[in-house]
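Still learning. Any example?
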Amino acid sequence: MKLRWHEDAKAEADAAAAFYHDQQQGLAQRFVDELEEALHRIQRHPGPTAR
């Protein structure tokens, strides 16, 4: 499965990373790493999850 970024979602992620960058050194990278891991999980298991 290939994911595509919606323009608004990309802008929001970029804004969040910039915000975290201003808050604490390394925080923006942690945010990006977590976001990428979440996207990889979605690619591996695109169906609904049971809760």
User: Anything to note?
Assistant: The chain has a mean pLDDT of 92. The chain has one domain: 7-43. The radius of gyration is 13 Å.
